[in-house]
Amino acid sequence: MADVKSKDESGSEDDDDSSKIVIVLFKSDTCAFCPRAEEVVRDTIRDFSPESFKLRVVNVSENPEVAEEFGIVALPTTMIGGVSITGIPEPEMLMKMIMGAGVSKMRGGKK
Amino acid sequence: MSNYTIERVKTGVPGLDELVEGGFPKGDTILVAGKAGTGKSTLAIQFLYNGAEQYGETGVLVTLEEPPRLIKRNMMNFGMDLAKMEKERKLVIVDLSPSKEVTPVTMGEFPSFDLSGLEAIIMSHVKKLKATRVVIDTLSILAYKFRSRDILREEFFKLTANITKKGVTLLLTSEIPEHHLGLGVFDVEAFLASGVLVLYNEKISDTLRSRSIEVLKLRGSKHSSRIHPMRITDEGVRVFPGEISPGA
């Protein structure tokens, strides 16, 4: 996965992120659904062990080039591993994506 | 009779200006609709290329379908060197085509999203380049990318209004599916635009097809109400305003 140049909002101070599952949330200043999507993502992470995750929030209004790089046109979009979901995600769907990314990491996948 | 004249931008397509009172009204949204292979993309990109080359207006090409390398190759065939134009900062090609390697695989969508990402991407390039012409090629691909058509329809209105509000002239291409009676997959395409061009490539005999163009509507303009022949020549699309299409 290409590197996401954005504000890192990981709750952890630990700089060794290689074992962490990276969650990228794309939002914008004008997107009405984005605050709720961010809430759902944060709540879902909290239910797992937060130190296993690195949450990166990309504000597309400020960093349009990141959305362009990943071809993200609809917001909110949550990207975990090589997969994404558009709209306010349901926690079950997020969990499936997190599990998928976790399995992929354990297998040494580079998704 | 009023002396007021609408400011117009030259289309960059030989012969087309004569059908639309000298050019597209500046700051309007123009829809270029047609079935596959009718020349929509060529016409739209020619609007950008000649806009920059002949009229000094910079442009943004947003490609949602065809990868830039193929667009450049195909336009080179008409003597239009888009790569050179990009280097000269007269044009930018925004690659949002599915061929991008880093684009994530979509797991699905919930009907709670907007297209503010697309808008932010386009507007950032418009600002950087001080562009006055934008092409989105093609709107129809979003129908295959997203299921929530009601949201898309509503978002298209916002998107087109926000892009054009400072005087940018926007061309949207729309692919009309085979056997479809409307102007595109969303059925709102005609409402999005203040001008609609329809391109045809109809079979007129077992061995012959004939290209033509129709200005279906152009608000505020006395446009031609006939269907005119159109050809794709070595220099791109050319319209023949003095002739009427044989199939018309």
Which descriptors would you attach to this protein?
heterodimer, A: about 110 residues, alpha+beta, Glutaredoxin, five-stranded mixed sheet, 3 helices, B: about 250 residues, alpha/beta, Rossmann fold, nine-stranded mixed sheet, two-stranded antiparallel ribbon, 7 helices
Overview of this structure, please?
The model of chain A is unreliable at 10-14 (pLDDT under 50). In chain A, strands 1-3-2-4-5 form a five-stranded mixed sheet, with helices on both faces. Chain A has a single domain (20-106), classed as 3-Layer(aba) Sandwich (Glutaredoxin). In chain A, 33% of the residues lie in helices and 22% in strands. The radius of gyration of chain A is 13 Å and the shape is globular. Chain A has three helices and five strands. Chain A is of the alpha+beta class and 111 residues long. Chain B has seven helices and twelve strands. The two termini of chain B are 32 Å apart. Chain B is globular. Chain B has a domain at 23-101 and 112-201: P-loop containing nucleotide triphosphate hydrolases (Rossmann fold), CATH 3.40.50.300. The model of chain B has no long low-confidence stretch (mean pLDDT 93). In chain B, α4 (116-129) packs parallel to α6 (149-164). In chain B, 28% of the residues lie in helices and 28% in strands. Chain B is an alpha/beta fold and 248 residues long. Chain B has helices at 40-55, 68-76, 82-87, 116-129, 141-145, 149-164, 189-192, and strands at residues 8-9, 24-25, 29-34, 59-63, 91-95, 105-109, 133-137, 169-175, 195-205, 208-218, 227-233, 236-239. In chain B, the strands form two sheets. Chain B has a nine-stranded mixed sheet with strand order 5-4-7-8-3-9-10-11-12, with helices on both faces. A two-stranded antiparallel sheet of chain B has the order 1-2. The interface between A and B is medium-sized, with 38 and 30 residues.
